[in-house]
Design a protein that fits this description.
Helix content is 32%, strand content 28%. The chain is α+β, with helices and mostly antiparallel strands.
């Protein structure tokens, strides 16, 4: 306390010391640590007070002995020094005001708290610590902003006058330049005053500055001279006048006519020279160039070269030398000062650390003193207690002695007793002495006494201080008295406040009473409002009538418009037909039109019949599916009548519409007037509460009167419309009747044939409704079925022949479309027929030729077939000849086949692979012991290995007997080579003219057969080509007991991807309620498929499987558009071939919940809306639904393939096969269909499994493969140092077994076709067989024979995660198998493999080769389409071949290759074909437009695309009033142009976004427009227009338009750039090849492509938008596939010289940084080449000064110097290259990257290059060539 009292004497000394140490109070507690004696006894509170006073001293504010404050402080008006408040950006401030001086780091303001104009702070909110130049568009290097600010995390720029854009990245209107180029600025357009005077700014190109529209007969870059044919002054006088030289040229300034070219003297052979306009333009240019050269020459000559100039240069040189030396010395001094400052800083830091340590030690000592004080007090207390206890003990002893004496006297003890007791007492005394119980206590007492004395001394010392403290009591009391006075004042204030509160309560009471009165008034007002509302409601109800009439009138207008459009369309169709009649024979054309009329209705009827087939297992459904074609012609006559009636009605409505149109407009106006009056009435009711009921009644009565008048007018209009029936319509109707009558007569034969069939179907339906094994009804139905099948076999081929003949002769488009539609429906019907699960009875002479429904190529290496069989044992023919034929699948020449037969009481499986037969008899179960009900047979063949299964079920339980027999081919063959055109599939018997092989040449089968599956496809006998001798009267089908095989069939439904189930009116089983629920179980191995779909107009609900996970999207009319709910966290994978229970719960009409296997996956909220659906599609949907307006919202349009069961709505079950809308599904869940025998690999994927046995023992394995890539690893296995691999090398197959290589002689196995590999390893030889071509070598090592492993070893298909020399495989692998001793031969189920990395286990998207593709389309398409495809194919070949003159050069450019790279530097591309897309305005611009373009414009172009929308061609005038366009809309081609104010639109009916080349011609003539597609589709539209008024100007746009163009005339989706390839552009028969400007267009690459961004060898880069930046901490991950070993991958830089650069150099990846201190870098070099044609993953992670580089898991890192002042900058990021001006000299790699980049991510956030700020150079954003 004394120290505090003496503070005024000590403070100057402390301040001096503080100034000496240049240190302020820190967290250590102050500048000094006072050593106060006895400080350990100071309380914590007192210590805190003292430290606070010390801190106040340290930051002291009183300077009695200093004339000025030190740096960082300023003197206030009171004379004290206060710290400057400059936010760390200045060290000095002005005395008195504290205003900061010399703000650093680009800051300004009184306290350096602001950024000056053109700068922006480093933080979003608060005071900046650093201001950097605005990035507008580039900081420091190109900053054109007056100011900038942040908004929503982005920087917004306030641009200078000449600039525009959010980042000042472009020039403002009227200026030109490129602000993104360093050094470039925006300059004002200079068009010499000859631009359009109506424009605010002069119109010039925004980049080059070239004037666009020169007026007043001027031309030139700046409109600076008169146009050719004119003379005068274009700049000043602006008087360009036409030359008066009779068509010859004149001098551009004087107008003097120029002489003609000199005449050639006669007698010579020189031709006459005629100078055109180009020569005179060239002459003018040369004259101007000479003038410029003369000016430059005079300027150069004016430069002084004398002695004075030389001396001046020498002086400058000497001055520069001196400056260099001075600057060098200055630099050295600066370095020395920097070192000294750093040393001083280190010393100061050490001093501060020591002060902090001392402070901590003082605190610890104080704590220990307090602890000792407490312990001493406790010890003193214990000693006092001990002394007191000892005194008590002494008194007790004395008392005991006296009592002993007393008792001795009183009790007269005998001497013996006394002696005895004394002895006992002595013993006790000895015991006490022996124990010495008080020795330790005595010692402790002494120690405590000493401690107590010390403590007492300290207490006395503290007592002295206490006395000092008491001297301050008077001061404290004085302060307390002051506080007491203040409390009194406060009490008075509280009393006054209480009075105010009382007065307030009185006022509140008055207000409450007033409020109650107001509420009563409000109640009265509400009653009056309710009355008014009732009146308004009545008025609204009355007005509903006129509104309804108005809506009916609007509907009539719509209907009339539709009828008019239909009539107009019919008129066009008749005109087309009349035009075509002149080209063909009259009779032939009439017949073709009749067939077209018939076929359109045939297609509709066939489509209707398809929906009646549900394949539920009953005979009725089977026969209905088989004979669905027979009812096609039954309703043709009714359809014709309906068409005539519709035509009649249409004509009436069309004629009546003309008269009623004006009346409708008049009535609509009246309705609007009435509605406005009603609105005014409502407004009056709101404004005036005193409106009476009588007034309202008058308004209502008036409304009723007007409504009645309107109704009477409407009735009169309807009467007029009904009475209208023009003579012309009746004449057209009579002509249509004559044509229709002829068509009806042509179909009478088919009608007569189908009438009995229809009657039979009706009878079958009646007989089978109550079918309970009723023999009579069953036989009757079967007999009818036999007749129908027999008639079907006769009618159906005739129908197909007629289709072919009509198709060949058809001239009109609608015939081809009708034929194609019928073919599609027939194919769909065959798919339905394949699922009919009904047997056929064979009597020994009957046979069925089945359509196998599978590509024979898929049967080559693996064949699996299952069927049900039941023998008719009591048939006498079977007893006489028990050996019977069952089936044959093979070629007609009895080579390469598989078959089944019964021989010698055994079931025998026979197959032939081209050499000899293999017979496998099942002798374990003789046929004679088979039961009298159905058994199931399954036969398999894997390569040369065959196997047969027999399963005999039990009728009373689920028990089964199973029998297996195996065999194999001994010869070399392993493939079943079936020829598609010669392959046949006979069941039960064969035709008489067919010769079976000897092993199967047996009598026909007797009994019932039912096919089940062929490979993975469900198949049925009812999907037949022909039937022979099927007599259902004598041989009815056998009923198969459903109890057998029920376990896997009863509750499951099988979907093959083509069918679907449709449950209509689902609310019949349950209602949509507050909780709506759908449940279903699915099982599938596929990746994609539609599970549930509900549609109502544009509203929909879809549940799909996308890449193996659920994808739910729905829209119930929400204002925000569709809602997406997907399993983005990958919680539940569906495609694992296991049943998964899926539940969709819609809660409270606003929350959608997805549950899988009773586990919540995800939920999402939406607007409160009820589900607006009645029907639901399950497992798929019709094509017209999938390709409707909802198609863009679906993840895909693929039907579900797999099994489903347990579909429920609101927990109510549905039997899907009993639903009338179900099509193409069947009972059961075949296990074979759920196996994954096929896998697709994308070049980065692989699958793996493991076995304990070694593959280097006796081993055989095989598999199919299919690919278009020449290289890739197919199979890999390693065992120690031994490796077994099968790979492709340049198209050949290579086996590598422990260093021994076997290579196939052929190198064409990458042809996209399926090939089969068999590998065999024995102790003697290694063998490789590819498509039955064997190669072998001796086994050099036999040490591995018989070796078995103790642990599992992995083998890989499609690639390997290990480092190998081969790239991973791209293509398909299927039907793989392995054989070991004592193990069964089984096809590998890839679904069971333990590792599956990026592999798809369903489907093979490898493209077929072009020849095979054309062949396939030629067989399955109509002739017209076949011709089109062939022509397209020729065009494609023509496109792909360069012209003879350029062929060699073209090949050399394309095949240019980096020697270190696997892929050529330039991918193979189609000559003169260009790829558009990637950005919204990708395009080419052409400036040349012919003079006669306005009269006739004929264009032709070739295109191919997969896109649904995009602009192909566009040209217009400046205001876009006149235009012509060709674009794609919803996949269809649309040709559109204007004729005056009318827009002509010609649209194709078919879609052309199929990825094939199509030739398109579009013509705008004088009065007609034509669109011709592939030379087959001709669409026309006449118009009336004046050609002189239709004028367009350059440029002509191809592939897209400039921003803002075409929006006026074209829908926005089609305004964006065309995504695809365009070629062979011709205008009026002349090719157009040289574009004036090109934007984001690359060559059209050949071969396969994939997603990614391609950087070509021409150079280019992508600048990311401002939302992405690289700061002090980031992670960048991307993948590359380079075509050059060197190039820049990524670059970022800042204004202060810091940068980050990632590049490749000779295959080495390097990251180099500069963080403001110095450069540092790290590199990774892979063992294999980085340029090997594979994708490689690169990751860069930075955390301040630590950078880690990861290339394909090879990791390296570097730790650079730490920059304590480092600041995050948002700077542009360049990908693939960088402008040369931004590269520093230390970066050796300056070339742009060549190759592909994909999956680019910054901080786990995907980067979309299509949204980049800038795409410069030849960069393809969305397409990356794969080869």
């Amino acid at each position: 306390m004394a120290l505090i009292s003496a503070w005024p004497l000590v403070s100057p000394i402390l301040f001096f010391l503080r100034c000496f140490s240049s240190s302020t109070a820190s967290s250590g507690g102050g500048v000094f640590q006072f050593d106060i004696e006895g400080s350990s006894a100071v309380s914590v509170q007192e210590a805190t007070v003292i430290r606070g006073q010390q801190q106040a001293v340290a930051t002291g504010s009183w300077v009695p002995f200093a004339e000025r404050c030190q740096e960082g402080f300023y003197r206030t008006s009171s004379g004290k020094c206060s710290p400057c408040n400059c936010n760390g950006n200045a060290n000095r401030c002005l005395d008195g005001s504290g205003t900061c001086v010399d703000c650093q780091r680009n800051t300004t303001g009184e306290h350096c708290e602001q950024c000056p104009d053109g700068f922006i702070g480093d933080i979003v909110g608060g005071v900046p610590t650093f201001c950097q130049p605005c990035p507008c568009p580039l900081p420091a290097l190109a900053n054109f902003a007056v100011a900038c600010y942040r908004k929503s995390g982005s920087v917004r720029c306030v641009c200078k006058e000449n600039y525009a854009g959010p980042n000042c990245e472009r020039c403002a209107p009227g200026y030109y330049g490129n602000p993104l180029l360093i050094g470039s600025t925006c300059k004002k357009c200079d068009c010499s005053g000859n631009s359009d005077p109506n424009l605010i700014f002069e119109d010039c190109d925004e980049v080059t500055g070239q004037c666009r529209n020169c007026l007043r007969n001027t031309t030139g870059f700046k409109c600076e001279r008169c146009a050719p044919g004119y003379y005068g002054d274009a700049r000043v006088a602006k008087n360009c006048t036409e030359c008066n030289c009779g068509g010859r040229m004149c001098d551009s300034q004087t107008g003097e006519c120029l002489a003609d070219s000199p005449e050639v003297s006669s007698g010579t052979d020189c031709p006459t020279i005629s100078c055109d306009k180009c020569i005179w333009d060239l002459t003018d240019d040369i004259r101007l160039a000479v003038l410029a050269i003369d000016e430059s020459k005079s300027t150069l000559l004016s430069i002084s070269t004398g002695v004075a100039a030389q001396k001046r240069l020498n002086d400058l040189n000497i001055t520069a030398t001196h400056l260099q030396a001075a600057m060098s010395e200055k630099k050295n001094n600066a370095v020395l000062w920097t070192i000294q400052v750093d040393d001083a800083e280190d010393e100061m830091n050490d001093f501060l650390r020591e002060a902090a340590i001392l402070d901590e030690q003082g605190n610890e000592a104080s704590s220990r003193g307090l602890l000792i004080q407490r312990e001493t007090t406790e010890t003193n207390n214990r000693a006092t207690q001990l002394v007191q206890q000892l005194g008590n003990m002494r008194d007790n002893i004395q008392e005991i002695g006296s009592k002993i004496k007393y008792y001795t006297i009183q009790q007269e003890l005998s001497p013996e007793e006394i002696a005895q007791k004394l002895n006992v007492a002595e013993e006790m005394l000895k015991e006490i002495k022996r124990r010495k119980p008080f020795t330790n206590e005595r010692q402790r007492a002494n120690e405590e006494e000493d401690a107590a004395e010390e403590l007492l001394q300290k207490v006395e010392e503290f007592h002295e201080r206490y006395n000092d403290t008491r001297s301050l009591v008077s001061d404290v009391l004085e302060q307390l008295s002051d506080q007491d006075v203040k409390l009194s004042d406060l009490e008075e204030a509280i009393d006054q406040a209480l009075d105010h509160v009382l007065r307030t309560e009185d006022i509140n009471k008055k207000n409450t009473a007033s409020l109650q009165r107001r509420e009563e008034q409000d109640e009265k007002i509400k009653e009056q409002i309710n009355e008014v509302n009732d009146i308004l409601l009545s008025a609204t109800t009355i007005l509903a009538g006129p509104q309804k009439v108005n809506s009916e009138l609007s509907e009539i207008i719509k209907n009339v418009s539709g009828f008019y459009a239909e009539i107009d369309g019919a008129k066009k169709e008749l005109q087309e037909k009349l035009a075509n009649l002149s080209l063909f024979d009259d009779d032939l054309v009439e017949k073709a039109m009749q067939h077209a009329h018939n076929l359109r209705r045939l297609a509709d009827e066939l489509d209707w019949n398809l929906h009646g087939v549900d394949a539920n297992g009953l005979v009725q459904r089977a026969i209905n599916a088989s004979n669905v074609y027979e009812n096609i012609a039954g309703y043709i006559e009714e359809a014709n009548k309906a068409a005539l009636l519709a035509l009649n009605t249409t004509n009436q409505v069309n004629d009546a519409a003309v008269g009623i149109d004006t009346q409708i407009i008049y009535h609509k106006g009246k309705s609007n007037e009435l509605l406005n009056r009603a609105i005014e009435l409502h407004r009056t009711a709101d404004d005036r509460n005193d409106l009476t009921i009588a007034d309202t009644s008058r308004h209502v009565n008036g409304t009723l009167a007007r409504m009645n008048a309107l109704r009477s007018q409407l009735m009169r209009a309807i009467t007029k419309m009904q009475s209208a029936e023009p003579v012309e319509a009746r004449e057209r109707l009579e002509q249509a009747k004559l044509k229709t009558a002829e068509a009806v007569s042509a179909t009478m034969t088919v009608t007569q044939a189908t009438i009995p069939m229809d009657e039979n179907v009706r009878l079958w339906s009646q007989n089978l409704q109550d079918f309970q094994h009723n023999s009579a009804a069953y036989n009757s139905a079967v007999h009818s079925a036999g007749d129908a099948v027999k008639k079907l076999t006769e009618v159906f081929p005739q129908l197909l022949d007629k289709l072919r003949r009509v198709e060949q002769k058809a001239p009109a488009n609608n015939i081809s479309s009708s034929i194609q539609r019928i073919r599609e429906l027939i194919a769909q019907t065959r798919s339905v027929a394949s699922k009919v699960q009904v047997s056929m009875m064979f009597g020994g002479q009957s046979a069925v030729e089945v359509n196998p429904k599978i590509n024979v190529e898929e049967l080559k290496s693996f064949t699996s077939m299952s069927l049900y069989i039941k023998l008719e044992k009591d048939n006498p023919q079977l007893a006489a000849s028990p050996d019977r034929f069952i089936l044959y699948l093979g070629n007609k020449n009895a080579k390469n086949y598989i078959g089944l037969a019964i021989k010698n009481d055994n079931l025998v499986y026979i197959y032939n692979l081209g050499d000899q037969d293999v017979e496998i008899p099942l002798d374990a179960k003789p046929v004679s012991t088979w039961p009298s009900y159905f058994s199931i047979i399954k036969i398999e063949r894997i390569g040369r290995h065959g196997k047969m299964f027999l399963t005999v079920p039990s009728l009373s339980s689920t028990d089964e007997e199973k029998f297996i027999k195996k065999g194999e081919v001994l010869g070399p063959g392993s493939l079943l080579n079936l020829e598609p055109e010669n392959a046949v599939f006979y069941v039960g018997g064969v035709p008489q003219d067919f010769k079976l092989p000897p092993g199967l040449n047996l009598p026909g089968f007797i009994g019932c057969l039912e096919l089940a599956a062929l490979n993975d496809e469900v198949i049925s006998l009812y999907n037949f080509k022909h039937v022979y001798n099927i007599d259902t009267t004598t041989s009815p089908p056998c009923a198969r007991n459903k109890l057998a095989f029920t376990q896997s069939r009863a509750v499951s439904y099988f979907f093959d991807g083509s069918g679907y189930a449709l449950a209509r009116n689902i609310e019949r089983r349950g209602r949509f309620s507050q909780v709506t629920r759908f449940d279903i179980e699915v099982r599938t191995p596929t990746d994609n498929g539609l599970i549930l779909l509900m549609v109502n107009g544009s509203m929909f609900f879809s549940l799909e499987m996308h890449n193996g996970f659920l994808y739910l999207r729905y829209d119930f009319g929400f204002s925000t558009g569709p809602v997406l709910l997907e399993d983005s966290m990958k919680k539940a994978q569906i495609n694992d071939a296991k049943f998964h229970e899926i539940s969709i719960i819609y809660h409270n009409s606003k929350k959608m919940i997805l549950v899988v296997d009773r586990r919540h996956i995800k939920s999402v909220d939406n607007e409160r809306t009820a589900m607006p659906f009645t029907d639901i599609y399950i497992g798929g949907a019709p094509a017209e639904i999938l390709h409707s307006s909802i198609s863009s919202h679906l993840a895909g349009s693929i039907g579900f393939k797999g099994c489903m069961k347990g579909f429920q709505f609101q927990k109510k079950d549905f039997n899907l096969l009993e639903e009338p809308g179900t099509l193409g599904i069947s009972y059961g869940c075949p296990e074979d269909s759920l196996m994954s025998r096929k896998a697709y690999f994308n070049g980065e994927s692989f699958i793996a499994s493991s076995q304990k046995l070694s593959l280097f023992t006796e081993f055989e394995g095989g598999f199919n493969f299919r690919t278009l890539q020449p290289n890739g690893l197919l199979f890999y296995y390693s065992e120690g140092s031994d490796v077994l691999s099968i790979s492709m090398d340049r198209g050949a197959v290579v086996l590598n077994a422990s260093g021994t290589k076997i290579q196939s002689p052929d190198r064409n196995y990458n042809d996209g076709k399926t090939h089969f590999i068999v590998t065999s390893i024995t102790p003697e030889r290694y063998e490789l067989t590819v498509d039955d071509k064997k190669q072998s070598k001796k086994n050099p090592t036999k040490d591995n024979a018989g070796k078995s492993l103790d642990s599992n070893k992995k083998f890989y298909f499609g690639g390997s995660p290990l480092r190998t020399q081969q790239a991973n495989f791209t293509g398909c692998i299927s039907n793989a198998y392995f054989t070991w001793l004592d193990q069964e031969v089984e096809v590998e189920d890839f679904q069971k493999y333990s590792e599956k990395v990026q592999a798809s286990l369903y489907g093979c998207p490898v493209e077929s080769p072009p020849v095979a593709l054309l062949h396939k389309k030629g067989k399955n398409s109509s002739k017209a389409k076949g011709n089109r495809n062939k022509k397209v194919g020729r065009d494609k070949d023509k496109l792909s071949q360069p012209s003879s003159g350029l062929k060699k050069l073209y090949q050399e450019v394309n095949m240019q290759r980096d020697p270190q790279c696997h892929l050529p530097m330039n991918p193979k591309a189609i000559e003169h074909a260009y790829q558009f897309g990637g950005t919204a305005n990708s395009r080419q611009e052409f400036d040349h437009i012919p003079k006669d373009f306005n009269e006739r414009a004929q264009f032709s172009i070739s295109l191919k695309t997969h896109s649904s929308h995009g602009m192909i061609f566009y040209v217009s005038d400046q205001k876009e009033n006149n235009f012509m366009a060709l674009f794609v809309a919803h996949g269809r081609l649309v040709f559109m142009f204007n004729a005056g104010h009318q827009k002509i639109r010609i649209k194709s009916q078919e879609k052309y976004n199929d990825g094939l080349w199509h030739n398109v011609i579009f013509i705008r003539g004088k009065n007609i427009g034509r669109l011709i597609i592939d030379g087959l589709r001709v669409l026309e539209e006449p118009f009336s227009s004046n050609a002189n008024t239709w004028q367009v100007t350059e440029p002509l746009y191809i592939g897209g338009v400039a921003p803002g163009k075409a929006v006026k005339n074209i829908q926005i989706n089609s305004v964006y750039s065309f995504s695809g390839c365009l070629s062979n552009l011709q205008l009026n028969g002349k090719s157009i090849t040289s574009a004036s400007q090109t934007f984001s267009v690359t060559p059209c690459f050949e071969g396969p492509s994939e997603a990614g961004t391609y950087f070509s060898s021409e150079g280019g880069y992508v600048v990311l938008d401002e939302s992405f930046s690289l700061g002090l901490k980031f992670e960048v991950v991307f993948e590359i596939r380079p075509r050059s070993s060197s190039g820049i991958l990524l670059h970022g830089h800042s204004v202060n010289g810091e940068y980050l650069n990632m590049h490749m150099r000779n295959g080495q990846v390097t990251v180099k940084l500069n963080n403001g201190i110095r450069d540092f870098s790290t590199s990774v070099t892979l063992k294999q080449s980085l340029c090997d044609g594979r994708w490689h993953r690169i990751a860069v992670i930075r955390d301040a000064n630590v950078v880690q580089l990861d290339v394909d898991s090879e990791v390296n890192h570097v730790v650079g110097p730490l920059n304590p002042r480092a600041i995050d900058h948002r700077e542009p990021v360049f990908i693939g290259g960088v402008p040369e001006s931004l590269l520093t000299s230390s970066l050796t790699t300056r070339n742009s990257f060549i190759g592909c980049i994909r999956n680019f991510m910054i901080d786990e956030k995907p980067v979309s290059f299509s949204k980049a700020a800038l795409v410069s150079g030849a960069v393809s954003i969305n397409t990356c060539p794969a080869a």
